[in-house]
Amino acid sequence: MVKLIHTLADHGDDVNCCAFSSSLLATCSLDKTIRLYSLSDFTELPHSPLKLHTYAVHCCCFSPSGHILASCSTDGTTVLWNTQNGEPLAVMEQPSGSPVRVCQFSPDSTCLVSGAADGTVVLWNAQSYKLYRCGSVKDGSLVACAFSPDGNLFVTGSSCGDLTVWDDKMRCLHSEKAHDLGITCCDFSSQPVSDGEQGLQYFRLASCGQDCQIKIWVVSFTHILARSTEDEAKQFPEDWSEDDVSVWLCAQGLNDLVGIFKMNNIDGRELLNLTKESLADDLKIESLGLRSKVLRKIEELRTEVKTLSSGIPDEFLCPITRELMKDPVIASDGYSYEKEAMENWISKKKRTSPMTNLVLPSVVLTPNRTLKMAISRWLETHQK
């Protein structure tokens, strides 16, 4: 038996997506809003609609706990919302600025994937709101995404029909043309299946497309195990391949330089040795502003290399400078920063948070004495 029990008609334009948590229903629309309803009586929550996006909202999804809602939009952002009060937690900008078509949380809520119209896919740390890894597909917009039940794999589907399997480190494990006229949706089965003879586990994946077909796939985790040792050796930028450098360029919003870097066979070691002279004379990058941006990003990368080599705990590093903090302070966004760096940021960036991109409620900086003591103890232990 099927029976209609309620109709909601609050949006002012086409409704693009709906999602359930254990207690709420979320909807998003071309009217730029997200609306939240209680499942007990389908009344709209007092803090609904959620308004922050400047263009159409294409997708929304709850974290597994239901405490956070993600929404993505033509405006090139993915926004995380506190479902209990409707307050935005973070605004995460797609590096390329392209319209974001799909977003999806990992099963443990630690990661979020966003896929854009230009084929870029970003894996975000959903707890720190920072970009973790970035990749891209060759053709088409990304319109579908799904995580495997264990969170070790996720799949993206494109409007050109390509199905791509990624691991949790954004390594592309497999890609092929799955549907002739574009993929519309994909999803993993919640239960794995086992190979009785070899004891291997597989995940079943379904994809559907505009070719009027639904295809069932089996995805094995074996690929990752076979490549893990090799890829662990590539965690340092100087060991990056040319493809790794291309992924890094996309993550920095420098997509237009991928072709130039590949043409000149720039791998990780070459990247770290680039200078303003080599960018101008060898790579023929004419724009002074673009050269300056590349050099700035490379210098940040060199700092990260030093950090990886030194083993400094990440929580001891200022999110702005990526250097060991000497005088840590807590800002009104709840994060700790080096005092001088944060004061400069506030004076130049119009009071936005370096971590969330949201406006800071206050510019008051409070000394973080506990963190300062922890850093001092760490230095005493490691500088003997």
TrEMBL record:
SUPFAM superfamilies: RING/U-box, SAM/Pointed domain, WD40 repeat-like. One of its GO terms (biological process) is protein ubiquitination. Pfam families: SAM_2 (PF07647), U-box (PF04564), WD40 (PF00400). It comes from the Eukaryota. WD repeats lie at residues 50-91, 93-134, 146-167. GO terms for molecular function: ubiquitin-protein transferase activity. Residues 240-304 form the SAM domain. Keywords: Repeat, WD repeat. InterPro entries: SAM, SAM/pointed_sf, Ubox_domain, WD-SAM-U-box, WD40/YVTN_repeat-like_dom_sf, WD40_PAC1, WD40_repeat_CS, WD40_repeat_dom_sf. Residues 311-384 form the U-box domain. Coiled coil: none annotated. This is WD repeat, SAM and U-box domain-containing protein 1. The lineage of its organism: Eukaryota, Metazoa, Chordata, Craniata, Vertebrata.
